[in-house]
Amino acid sequence: MPFALLRYGLNKKHEPWHIIPPTPAQLKPSYDVVIIGAGGHGLAAAYYLATEHGITNVAVFEKGYLGGGGTGRNTAIIRANYLTPEGVAFYDRSVKLWRTMSDDLGINVMYTERGHLTLAHTDAAVRTSRWRAEVNKHLGVDSELVFPDEIARICPQLNLSRDVRYPVLAALYHPPGAIARHDAVAWGYAMGAAARGVEIHQLTEVIGFDLDSDCVSRVHTNRGSVAAGNVLMAVAGYSSRVASLAGLTLPIKTVPLQACVSEAVKPVLDPIVVSGSLHVYISQTARGEFVMGGATDPYALYSTRSTLDFAESLFAEMLELFPFMHQVRMLRQWAGLSDMTPDYSPVMGLTPIENLFIDAGWGTWGFKATPICGLTMAQCVATRRQPELIEAFRLDRFERFALVGERGAASVGH
Amino acid sequence: MKIMRCPLNGARNITEFVCGGEVKPLLGADPDPRALGRSIYFERNRAGLVWEWWMHVPSAYWFIARRDTRTDEIVRTLTFEEFTAEQVAAREEPVLS
Lengths: 414, 97
What we know:
The structure holds 2 protein chains of 2 kinds.
Chain A: H1 3-9, E1 30-36, H2 40-53, E2 58-61, H3 70-73, E3 77-78, H4 85-99, H5 101-105, E4 112-113, E5 116-120, H6 123-138, E6 144-146, H7 148-154, E7 170-174, E8 178-179, H8 182-195, E9 199-201, E10 206-211, E11 216-221, E12 224-233, H9 239-245, E13 253-264, E14 272-275, E15 280-284, E16 289-296, H10 308-321, E17 330-340, E18 347-350, E19 356-360, H11 370-383
Parallel strand pairs in A: 1-2, 1-12, 2-9, 5-14, 12-19
Antiparallel strand pairs in A: 3-8, 4-8, 5-7, 6-7, 10-11, 11-12, 13-16, 13-17, 14-15, 15-16, 18-19
Chain B: E1 3-6, E2 10-13, E3 17-22, H1 33-41, E4 49-56, E5 61-68, E6 73-78, H2 80-89
Antiparallel strand pairs in B: 1-2, 3-4, 4-5, 5-6
């Protein structure tokens, strides 16, 4: 028997590696910044507050467990092939941060660029794809419109027959399209933040605010109350509920988004494939599972139940695109809560309450923005100014009719 | 299959319906632009019992539903006339505000 096994296995003093920072026993009486929500976004903001702005008297409050909401439920696709110049610039900055994330955080987030195909089955979809390709190229993002001969080279597994209900006419090909391990992203930011003094309190639900002349003065939780200099809310599907504690209403509707994963098989599918018209998308993880999803549920709901309707419609379309999938068994199905906005762009930055900052409206597109969102929201909180990169995503754009319409770049129809 | 009861067509598969969103208060004539923006885009997005607009698509018939957004239980459906009559009668619950 190797000596190391005895040394570590039988030694009661040997501590295993703690990926997730333990929750401190007590809350401090006051924090410079309180972040509500320990998902990727909230933890990234905590990390960048510490690393970029030297603000470490920070608490992250999480009502459930770390990374257990949208962070752990999304399908982990990263891309920058959006439609509006504001959106493309923002997501492209995020892609640049993703490329160095494993080194920056000291944890392997398994970021892998696979290429991303958005299939177009109608003339209208081809037109939108060409529009997106041209906007992307103009802003230096690698995207191009490709046709069936090229699609067959990029993804030979795809059924390109004309003898189907919706033949593939063309596709938007985005070579930087990538996937990553979502849990590792949350853990990496949590470890990095905690190492610099940030406290992460799991099972700590925010239940109220004390407001004092347009400022949040105290934050009440189920484990006691604290004074807060600034408050950042990053709670995705629960944004309307947390905002209502401060008397705010939001342009957000909470809608479930379902996804599923298959058993693991050998590597067979390299690119990420999305079909907006057929409401499906698929990628294969490094472990060999197919991760698949579709459109959001058709109406508002605060429940993460799974439905047979979703699985049935997903596989009906999936089998048309990938006939070999009939041999693959589905392993798990789940749902997450999406905070949908009317223009399919996020709501970030200042609110009518001076020291309350919002990071919400991430709908079905939030995971890919995790690093840039953390970086810009940290800057927003530290300076109490709206950073230029997210100027277009202000909450008050809806009162000025200055929407940032990204529906055409949403991965699947909604 | 989830069933919804349409006041006009009776019990039908819920895939025949679309949700038109929360019942919101009507703005008066010539509203302030900011108020108009809020009225169009902002939602109360409550977790619990809500009043909503629904439409039966094949017959293009709009009506009101009472639904629980935590459980997806459709408590009842009623015509807009029945809804407004109830609202006038029960002034203590101002759901239109």
